[in-house]
C-alpha cells in the first residue's frame, strides 16, 4: 500500500467491514482448520476469489485456507477470540516504525487504519504486526518473532538499515523497554514522581529518535498524565491527556480511557491521592503555546 496523495497525521485511511469473521476454538490446528474451512465453504464464488487472492505465508505447512487466515486475520479487539478477514487492510506491510495503525471499532463493526504520522506521496503505508512486548526488543528478537508468526524476515526501514544504525536502534529500544518497565513497576510513581516523569520524557525522546511518533506514544503520555493527576497537578494532567488523545485515530476506543480527563482531570480515580504538585486545571497551557514544552516538563528531574 502506497500513498497516492499526501496523508496528514490522524487521517482515516481505510475503514473496512470484514469479508467474514470466524469465532472458534483456535487452541489446536485441527480445530482451527475445521472452523475456518466450514466458514470458507459458505462464501460466494466472488468472496472466495477475494479471499484466495490474499497472501499465504505458511507454505505447505497447512491447508491454503488456514495459511491465508493465519497470515491475514485480525482479532476483533484486543485479546478477542473472534477474528476477521479484511482484504484491503491485509495489504499493508509491517514496519517496526510504522506510519499507520489499525484498530477494530466495535461500535461500527469495522477495522480502521489511521495515519500515525504525515505520509508523503509515494511513501509506503505500514502498520505494526508485533505486540508491544516485542516492538521494544532488538532487531534479532523482533525478526525472530515475525519469522515465527508470519514466516518472513523483516526488511522494514529500521531492520534494513546499516549495522551501525541497527545497533543504535537496538540500544534505544532496549532503553525504552527498561524505562517502561520501571514505570510499569508502579512504585516510582509514588516514591519519586519527578524521576518517573523524567523517564516518560526520555521514552518520548527515544521514540521520536526511532521515528515511532505514533500510537506507541499514547501509553507514555497516559503514564505522564497519571503521575501528574496522582500528585494533584490538574493543569499538566489535562495537557498530557490532550497529548495522549492526539496520538490515536478518532475512532480508536482506547481514546475513551483518557479523553474525559482532558476537561475533567479531577474525576480520575487517582486525583487527590497527593497534593505535592497541586496546580489548578485553569492554569493548563495549550499545546503549541510559547514555552509549552518547558512548562510541561517542569516537574521532571
Ligand atoms: C498480510 S501480508 C501483507 C501484504 C502482502 N505484502 C501482499 O502483497 O499481499 C503479510 C506478508 O507480507 C510480507 N511482509 C509484510 N511486511 C514485511 C516486512 N516488513 N518485510 C518483509 N516482508 C513483509 C510478508 O511476506 C508477510 O507474510
TrEMBL record:
SUPFAM superfamilies from the UniProt entry: SET domain (SSF82199)
Gene3D superfamilies listed in its UniProt record: SET domain
Domain SET: residue ranges: 1-130
Domain of life of the organism encoding this protein: Eukaryota
InterPro entries linked to this entry: SET_dom (IPR001214), SET_dom_sf (IPR046341), SET_domain_protein (IPR053185)
UniProt-listed Pfam families: SET
PANTHER family from the UniProt entry: SET DOMAIN-CONTAINING PROTEIN 5
Name of this chain's protein: SET domain-containing protein
Amino acid at each position: 500500500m502506497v500513498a497516492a496523495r499526501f496523508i496528514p497525521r490522524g487521517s482515516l485511511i481505510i475503514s473496512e467491514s470484514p469479508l467474514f469473521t470466524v469465532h472458534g476454538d483456535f487452541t489446536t490446528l485441527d480445530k482451527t482448520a475445521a472452523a475456518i474451512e466450514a466458514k470458507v465453504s459458505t462464501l460466494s464464488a466472488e468472496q472466495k476469489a477475494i479471499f484466495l487472492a490474499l497472501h499465504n505465508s505458511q507454505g505447505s505447512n497447512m491447508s491454503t485456507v488456514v495459511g491465508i487466515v493465519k497470515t491475514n486475520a485480525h482479532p476483533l479487539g484486543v485479546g478477542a477470540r473472534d477474528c476477521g478477514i479484511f482484504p484491503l487492510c491485509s495489504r499493508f506491510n509491517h514496519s517496526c516504525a510504522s506510519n499507520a495503525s489499525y484498530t477494530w471499532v466495535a461500535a461500527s463493526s469495522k477495522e480502521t487504519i489511521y495515519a500515525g504520522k504525515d505520509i508523503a506521496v509515494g511513501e509506503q503505508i505500514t502498520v505494526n504486526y508485533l505486540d508491544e512486548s516485542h516492538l521494544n526488543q532488538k532487531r534479532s528478537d523482533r525478526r525472530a518473532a515475525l519469522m515465527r508468526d508470519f514466516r518472513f524476515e523483516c526488511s522494514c526501514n529500521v531492520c534494513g538499515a546499516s549495522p551501525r544504525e541497527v545497533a543504535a536502534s537496538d540500544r534505544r529500544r532496549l532503553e525504552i523497554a527498561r524505562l517502561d518497565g520501571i514505570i510499569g513497576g508502579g512504585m516510582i510513581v509514588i516514591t519519586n514522581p519527578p524521576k518517573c516523569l523524567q523517564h516518560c520524557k526520555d521514552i518520548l525522546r527515544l521514540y521520536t529518535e526511532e521515528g515511532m511518533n505514533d500510537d506507541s506514544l499514547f501509553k507514555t503520555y497516559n503514564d505522564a498524565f497519571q503521575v501528574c493527576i496522582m500528585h494533584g497537578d490538574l493543569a499538566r494532567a489535562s495537557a498530557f491527556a490532550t497529548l495522549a488523545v492526539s496520538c490515536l485515530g478518532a475512532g480508536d476506543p482506547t481514546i475513551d480511557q483518557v479523553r474525559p480527563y482532558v476537561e475533567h482531570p479531577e474525576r480520575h480515580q487517582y486525583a487527590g491521592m497527593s497534593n505535592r504538585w497541586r496546580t489548578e486545571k485553569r492554569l493548563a497551557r495549550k499545546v503549541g503555546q510559547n514555552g509549552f514544552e518547558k512548562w510541561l516538563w517542569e516537574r521532571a528531574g
